[in-house]
Specification:
DNA-binding, 30% strand, phosphoprotein, LytR-like, DNA binding, alpha/beta, LytTR_DNA-bd_dom, 15 strands, five-stranded parallel beta sheet
């Protein structure tokens, strides 16, 4: 079972996070810290006592925006230890996901925190620590009678991203919206996430770019670079300049990798004459 430290400089949010963590049967203990200094002092004591010591910490649930050191600063400092605790970022800001996963974060949970989303973060931490099966039997759901067919519950975020053939679910601050795939001009890889760019703005989803490439090939999306997937019909211009190929998609200019350039030119020609 997990020993957890939750760090947030907003007391009501910290108390809510601790309440949710303590309600999870996989969490043995959950303590709180309201600033970076307290958090570092607590983690240092845990590291000094060893992984099996009385002050041990397995996972730090860490806010990003705090007075003084940010959560990212704390994570960078912890990364310098030989056996640091796992990190789960809990934040109201979606724009730091790439930095978070560069720091080997287990998960990135957006506020306001939903209990089922936090439970998924706990599951991932347990799995990474090799404790995925340490859930008490009492926590298992009751058996379904043979005459009843239970509707499957979708896993949070990435497991069932589409609603019907034409939409994808995106989440911001605990609110789920459905974006028409036809409105997406291009997709940008950001670590384990993908950022969907539309005319109105952008949305972050926890789906790898390679997965979207496979799912949306029939909808006219093509890979032009290891970082970009583009809707063919939204390309306004293809330019070759000094050996570098780029495309303009609205106001965005995106580089085309050499291995994709010829295929893209052929596709655009067929699309234009088709």
């Amino acid at each position: 079972m997990l020993r957890v430290l939750a760090v947030d400089d907003e007391k009501p949010l910290l108390e809510e996070l601790l309440y949710l963590l303590r309600s999870d049967p996989r969490v043995h203990s959950a303590e709180g810290a309201s600033d970076a200094t307290e958090a570092l002092r607590r983690v240092t004591r845990a590291l000094e006592s060893g992984p099996d010591g009385p002050d041990g910490i397995d996972v730090v649930f860490l806010d990003i925006h705090m007075a003084g050191l940010t959560g990212l600063d704390i994570a960078r400092l912890l990364a310098g230890f030989a056996r640091p605790p796992l990190i789960v970022f809990v934040t109201a800001h979606e724009g730091f996901a790439v930095q978070a996963f560069d720091l080997k974060a287990v998960d990135y949970v957006l506020k306001p925190v939903r209990p089922e989303r936090l439970a998924e973060a706990v599951r991932r931490a347990c799995a990474q620590l090799g404790r995925a099966e340490e859930v008490p039997v009492a926590a298992a759901p009751p058996a379904v009678p043979p005459a009843v067919v239970a509707a499957p519950r979708p896993a949070p975020e990435a497991a069932v991203p589409d609603r019907g053939p034409e939409q994808i679910a995106v989440e911001l601050g605990g609110v789920t919206r459905f974006v028409a795939i036809a409105d997406i001009a291009y997709v940008e890889a950001q670590g384990d996430y993908a950022r969907l760019h539309t005319d109105e703005g952008s949305h972050l989803v926890r789906i790898p770019l390679s997965t979207l490439e496979e799912r949306w090939a029939a909808r006219g999306f093509v890979r032009i670079h290891r970082r970009h997937l583009v809707a063919l019909a939204r390309i306004d211009e293809l330019r070759l300049d000094s050996g570098t190929t780029t495309v303009r998609v609205g106001s965005a200019v995106l580089q085309v990798s050499r291995r994709h350039a010829r295929e893209l030119r052929d596709l655009l020609m067929r699309h234009a004459t088709g």
